[in-house]
Amino acid sequence: MRITEAAARLGMSPRMLRYREALGLLPPVREKGSHRRFGEEELAAVTQAVELERRFDVSPAELAFALRALSEPAVAQAVRDLGLRIGRIQAPRRALDFEKEKALRLLRGR
């Protein structure tokens, strides 16, 4: 189906559907160079994205960035580094650090 029919079935404007496509929230176009045709797979993807946006109170752009962070290792690492710096993510404890802390506790106990 064409974008106008798909948008009507989804309860949104064709412009919003194009915006979601530009953000990468739709499956890729099957045939290169052709106009996007919407099938059940595309409609289900948009429906799922809208459900996630409502459930977690995020915008389409925020959801698109979350997908990017999950799929691009460099982006994931940059986000993780920020999370560590601002204290939203705890640094993983290494086994050696754990053993060192354990030894210090035992020494303090004496």
UniProtKB/TrEMBL annotation:
One Pfam family cited in the UniProt record for this chain: MerR
Example GO BP: regulation of DNA-templated transcription
GO terms assigned for molecular function: DNA binding
InterPro entries per UniProt: DNA-bd_dom_put_sf (IPR009061), MerR-type_HTH_dom (IPR000551)
Start and end residues of each HTH merR-type domain: 1-46
Name of the protein: HTH merR-type domain-containing protein
